[in-house]
Fold:
Amino acid sequence: MNAKKSSAIFGFEELSAAIENYSGKYGEDVTDTSYFGFPVDAVLNAEKKLLSSTDKSVAYFSMEYGLAPSIYNTFQLTRPMSEKNQFFRHEVFSNNWMCDYLFKIEIDKMLDIPIYGGGLGVLAGDTIKSAADLGVSFVGIGILWNKGYFKQNFWYKHGQVPEEMQWDPYSYPGLIPLKNIVTIDTKEGPLALRLWKYYVYSYDKKFSCPLILLDSNLPQNSPHFQKLTDQLYRSDDVWWKIFQRSLLGIGGMKALRSLGYNIDCYHLNEGHAACALLEQYVSLEDKGQMEDFKNKFVFTCHTPVEAGHDKFNVSDMAKVLNKEYIDAAEMFGKATPESTQVNFTIMALNNCRHANAVAQKHGEVMRYQFPKYASKIDAITNGIHSHTWVSESFSKLFDQYHNVIGDWRKEPEALVKVKNLIRDENFRRDTFAAHQINKKNLIDIIRHWQLRDDVFTIGWARRIAGYKRPALIFHDIRKIIELAQDIGPIQIILAGKAHPNDNIGAAHIDDILDHIDELNSHKDLIKVLILENYDTFFGKLLTNSVDVWLNNPLPPFEASGTSGMKAIINGVVQMTTLDGWVVEAVNDDIGWIFGYQHSGENIGTESDLRLDEDSKALVQTLKAAMILYYETLKAGNLNVNSPWIDKMIHCVERSAFFNTQRMVKEYREKMWQIR
Ligand SMILES: *Cc1c(COP(=O)(O)O)cnc(C)c1O
Structure:
């Protein structure tokens, strides 16, 4: 891990020598056989490949990573872990106030590394896991957010109240501080960044991919600089936003050099990372070489929402970065020569060899939005890491039918073979039984609220953003009450965080809390709960256990969406608008599609939420689904021939495609071109 080392010699000695305070703190967790309980060879192999000049390597830059080590590939720690890294208690806001007052959800779990905000980070985490599964020489670059994203509290009559998060990276299993420090020259003097590493292992633990995390919390930095890596997406001042992006792009490129890695492709995950291009340019002695280097950069865009594209005034950037960076930014990132702003999406599109949207529909939309770049915009549909998101009961089910399905762990694509089992009565019964196990598990975790496993249950959980329409199901609450009276009871579980400075998102949470209040007098027929602090643990719990996963973004603003993919691998039926990944499953009978459909070149506006029309469509769809559900499970007796079970099996069949193993293979061929 020394910059001077050019040959690919990397053994345990190099590994331990690179760790800050190795003998004082890490000596028992990192040994010549074991890395926090996993085989150390996987680490040494990965390092050798990244250092070698013959293996083709990819560096992937992302502001956030959702790695979910509490639910997948959990490392061991010989020392005690700080209590701050244990899962905290979760409160619930439901239409049964007494229950909320008396009880909390208590889970004895390790906190996931709190360096993600939502779907973008989870996708980055799933990508690095699948890269490891496929043995790709791959290194992730991110930031060690010392105070995470934020802790969410719901206060009655106040809505969401954000609180600062605390955690301890020094006792987080798998995380090691390196001796390497890189420095960025800024307008306010040198900014020092410590490098940390976290190795992400493959499912069979034979290979790994390092994730490098940058940290400004060092004594040699000014107190102001020390806080730069505190909170993910801090946005109360443009100064923070520009600094955080400079840190990722510029600091990231310097980190790769400091480690001596030989990189063939730099992948910018979102415009956040576009400053990497500036650093590449500034570092070149012969600026004429930049054209060749541009060929090594690729870019993924994740949103058609206008506010999702970073734009900064040149004058604001000039308060942070020195002139050579500003000159490069003006040259690379202006939408027009007269513009006084640098647009990070344009900067990436202008200078990267290739760009991609994250679903086919998003590809269309992105080409309308950026017609000048249409020829370099491809579409690679997102996925989820199957091993992380599949439940235990469904893993067992797939293993039990191994003869037909094959090695689905090695090749998640094999799940397509469940179609050969769709008329097998035992498989149908077993599929439903596996689902009921997951549903009972959920009910057990929130047992004080006394949900039932034979009641129609809907889940909605994701980042709270306007276009996702989190309160759509409550828009015409009278109709929902009528459905419950006419057809059967309903259970609704929600969760999600709004960005602390997003007033519209916070208003949606207020709205949800008010509606939950309104349903207080109907709690025998409708139970509604919203869980605090949505995270990857609850993401997995909810997506695999409810009967119906609700996804109702306003088309075409959901670029892909991934939570539904976590649901389908667990046979959870979809109720969704036609947007994002769902467009590619429209003919597969994976549930119900409802509401407004977008077509044509006019994207429309995300402030026109079409709540009246889509709420009517949702009620009609709910009615059909509830009737079918209560026919399928009548007085606890399963009708094994029900079309509901067909839908469940179709869901699993389609999950053969919507996974990051397939996605990373596509990246390898179309974007990275390393084979
Ligand atoms: C999967 C996941 C998301 C993404 O959900 P979408 O429906 O794609 O918006 C967000 N947050 C967490 C914690 C997740 O696990």
